[in-house]
Amino acid sequence: MEKRTCKRIDTSLEAKFFHGNCLYRGTITNLSEKGICINTVACFPYGANIKLLIPVKEDILEIPVHVKRVAKRDGFYDTMGLELLDQSQNYLEFLNGLSSVL
Fold first, then answer.
1. Taking the model in full, what pTM does it have?
2. Cα separation of 84 and 86, whole Å?
């Protein structure tokens, strides 16, 4: 079994994401320097690229991600494991701010 290389931070942050021209909503359950786990009613297949939008104070953090895995609960796919395509300085600062609060 693979061990995670980055510490995950548990959250319940609301987020939006684009796939194509459609906007969807979900809840980020945990995140790290390399990945994000989100619960949503709209899961996309492995390999899909999406743009995740996280409201941060009066701004919106845009994060390009790649669907690394999907998980099923009670017969429905409702969780996506997302891999960051680019670790922007803004995202790392946001992550550090979360970990210092918790």
1. 0.87
2. 5
